[in-house]
Write a structure and sequence with these properties.
This protein is an all-alpha fold. The termini are far apart. It has helices at about 1-30, 35-45, 50-60, 65-75. The chain has a domain at about 30-75. The protein contains 4 helices and no strands.
Length: about 80
C-alpha cells in the first residue's frame, strides 16, 4: 500500500512540474509582462531546475529569443 502512495505522489509531482513548465512556455509565447514571467520562473526554480536547464527547455519548446529573455530575467530576479 505504501508503494502505491509513493507512486501517486511521484506522479502528482511530475504532472505539476510539467504543468508549470507548460505555463512558462505559454506565458512566453503570449509575450506576458516580465513580472508574470518572473513569478512562473520562481515556481520552476523551486521545482529544482537550474537556470541553464530552464533556458535549454525554453529554447526547445519556444525559441532562442524566449530563452535569452528568460536568462536575462533570472539574472535580474
Amino acid at each position: 500500500m505504501e508503494d502505491e502512495d509513493n507512486t501517486s505522489l511521484t506522479t502528482a509531482k511530475t504532472l505539476w512540474t510539467e504543468t508549470i513548465l507548460e505555463v512558462l512556455y505559454q506565458s512566453l509565447k503570449a509575450n506576458k509582462p516580465d513580472d508574470a514571467i518572473k513569478d512562473v520562473l520562481r515556481e520552476v526554480r523551486e521545482k529544482g531546475f537550474k537556470p541553464n536547464e530552464i533556458c535549454e527547455k525554453v529554447e526547445k519548446k519556444v525559441d532562442k529569443l524566449a530563452s535569452t529573455r528568460v536568462r536575462g530575467l533570472m539574472q535580474i530576479s
